[in-house]
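User: Hello, can you help with two protein structures?

Assistant: Certainly.
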Amino acid sequence: MKKTPKGLRLHIGIFGRRNVGKSSLLNAITGQSVSIVSEEAGTTTDPVEKSMELLPIGPVHFIDTAGLDDVGALGALRVQRAKTIIDRTDVAMLVCEAAQWGAFEDDLINLFQTERIPVIVCFNKTDIQAPNKEKVHQLQQQGVDVVQTAASRQAGIDEVKEALIRKTPEEYLTPPSILSDLVPPGEMAMLVVPIDLEAPKGRLILPQVQTIRDLLDNDAYCMVVKERELRDALDRLKRPPALIVTDSQAFLKVAGDTPEEIPMTSFSILFARFKGDLPTFVQGALSIEQLQPGDNVLIAEACSHHPIGEDIGRVKIPRWLTQYVGGKLQFEHVQGHDFPQDLSPYKLIIHCGSCTFNPKFLFSRIHKCRTAGVPITNYGIAIAYALGIFKRALQPFPQVQDMYDTSSITAAK
């Protein structure tokens, strides 16, 4: 893979009214004609996305949205689509003209701050009119960075980049590791990678690639095997691996072939911790015990792959949960950025590992589930629970097991 995955990039959303120069500003920052620029309001109809390197931050992903003041039935759809971008925005840029500031902009500032999204206000077209000094001071008092630009003339672009650097969350400058705390330097992880119909031809899937890179970055070793080769590979080693990580669909066989003294988990569970909220997902899996035949379960996939054969989200997880519950459940599926506004019909939401999502997007979904009172878990944790190896799969994470009393964990075995 030549490019940093989108899910590891800082997502920068560009918002504002129509025709304030959002697209011109994006083009000026990237140095490319990414968005169409026109004097006609509403030229940008759908979000325009552009990935690039912005030093010293590193890989970033810009999203230029349609004007949030669009009108008409089609305009309302564009506005709704633009607002969904907020769910995956790490840093927000609010672009406006000096003479246009009003309740519309105040409401957006309040929304960003409620969502705890760092925000930069770009007063654009300042070659025509400068912003009100009192408004600039008021925004700065609110913790908002303010820059003045004339994007069509490339004025103020360096100041925009400097503001983006200041507003970048610390976790993007010092990103967490996937498993360095589980596999110290000089130790080895064994990665179990099934090769089936859904495995992409000629390459590994993204979580596997990222895990390998993480091990190498932390001076650890890795051995990659298929599930049928695990036992023989272990027999050949002079020293056991520090950790075995498997694709969740091979959990049962890998658990059977892995000695109890060797910690074992799955890529999906690692990414539940890396991208999401492992304690919340574990708590959500415990709610499987309360599922009844006929209950609605939503399965959410971050990527929009075409399901074939024994698809894990559409075939295997429904089959394993149905067997565990002892009766038919009602499964619904969503892919990509689609996610229901109303979560009340569901008794459980099961999310994939979210390797293509940035953490902000996944946390926004977790927050929506909490607000709706609907438990959420992820593929690997749900599979481990349904297959009766819940405690075994969480063995590398004693801090999570300690959250629950012994009887809860024993009941989930």
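That covers the first. Now for the second protein you mentioned:
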Amino acid sequence: MDVQEVEAQTWMAFLEGHPEAHVLQTAPWGDLKAGFGWRARRWLLIEHGEHRAGLQVLIRPLPLGLSILYVPKGPVGDWQRPEAFHALLTTLDRLAQETHAVWLRIEPDVMEGELQLDLTAFGFRPAPPIQPRRTILVSLEGEEEAILQAMHPKTRYNIRLAERKGVKVREARPEELPLFYQLLQRTAARDRFAIHTFDYYRAAYERFVPHLARLWLAFYEEEPIAALMAFAWGERAWYFYGASGDRHREKMPTYALQWTAIRWAKARGCRWYDLWGIPDEDPEVLEAQFATRRDGLWGVYRFKRGFGGRVVRWAGAFDRVYFPPLYRLVRRLGFA
């Protein structure tokens, strides 16, 4: 059993054999983050001449020559055997020593209850997740009409209403990225959430579209009124970024966009469409309170629940701490 560092091309060749992998473990995602304060490195576990498991780790430099390490939605492959995880962890420990890491955070792409390893036995502790802990997965099995029938009747109605009202959806051209960002800024101001810089979304577009992502704009009489950017790898697609203006919202352009993204994901062979982030509450609480709550992600949950699917919860994040006093200080300063 050996662990070897690999370049992006070799890493992507490995991921081709793992359609279950998360898009956050792809080399383009590492490259995207590398332009905004992180650095990506990748390792493969070789056993009996085969690539059995691996991971992409992001390194974020901190002041004084320190760093933090983060494995988003990984490792990938057959990593949940104790001996395999120990080999990968030994490599990460060496990286931590090399980069003076205060801590290592891993956020496995594993549903709650399906994590086979006791990560606390490897020196990890539960930590605040960076990615949404709970989401809705919409099945893309069957014909399009079956997917529609699994939705809430009001959602089906709104998808068809958008068409009747004259909403047109098409893929955005590169020169239209500012239109997307303007809609995103308006949405962020209205709904009070933070967004990345324009350069971040432009970099995401350049690295992922058209092979692993699409950006759509919805128009009414030539006026851009909403936008959506979805990503895909293997068996899954993810709704990462959505935006809408203040005008013509009654024409339901966001429903038309979601249906466009779902159809795109199905056409490329995905089995699941991940709506990416809802309140981290049990399903019973979600259903009891969605009509009255307005804080946090409750507004988007009211929208997302209409597309059917099932609520799932991920195993969460775990930290391996190398410098406990610094860990507490850096966390208090808001680095993670």
